[in-house]
What does this fold into?
Amino acid sequence: MRLLPLLTDGFLDLVLGSACVVCERGGRVLCPDCRAGLPVEAAVRWPTPTPLGLVAPYAMGTYDGALRSMVLAHKERRVLALARPLGDLLGGSVRAALDDARCRVDAPVVLVPVPSRPAAVRQRGHDPTFTMTRAAACRLVAEDRDVTALRVLRLRPGVVDQAGLDTRGRAANLSGSMAAPTAVVRRLGERFPHTHVVLCDDVLTTGATLREAQRALEAVGVPVLAAAVVAATQLRDQVPNLR
Ligand SMILES: [Zn+2]
It folds into this structure.
């Protein structure tokens, strides 16, 4: 059970003297002022160029400032107390996607995190994408929605870290890299028939990761409603998309 380390780390952050990851003021890992300044509404942020056929990706804002500081501190410095505010943000993106698709509030929804490389999870000591996806599900459940986070996708061996690769390199690195094991898909169908699936990730860069995750789900007959991320890199999102 991962809950205990999560609680423990959050507690230690609190008692051992932490600072706001955004403004560095001593105290909570996210001070009330910085929390109050977080975006509250998500919007569709198409990457440019948009991978062909990508579902609409919803983001709370641009990947800079507070959103960037929070994502990095949670992912790389293991500031686990940020899981909840990040989950709230990701939940906001999911909510916008469901609202735009006119999903009924009681419709079952499964949030599928993009899979992390096992080596990265070992190195970091946690799986930040899954953690914040689960937190997003909790947030939406608290709003009386029927939402579950489920690890459906697996990463095939041989995928390298995306950082440092250009758009074409990322696409090649990821092509065919994900799979949804039959047993997991069957369980998904049994537990959640007629469910809406929303892909979740922390940051949208080129859209290659989300597109590959979408492909892997569609390959086993699981349609994807939309994608949700905390933030999208500044990729000229004002340019009309050419899907
Ligand atoms: Zn602050």
Notes: The CA atoms of residues 76 and 190 lie 36 Å apart. The longest strand covers residues 196-204.
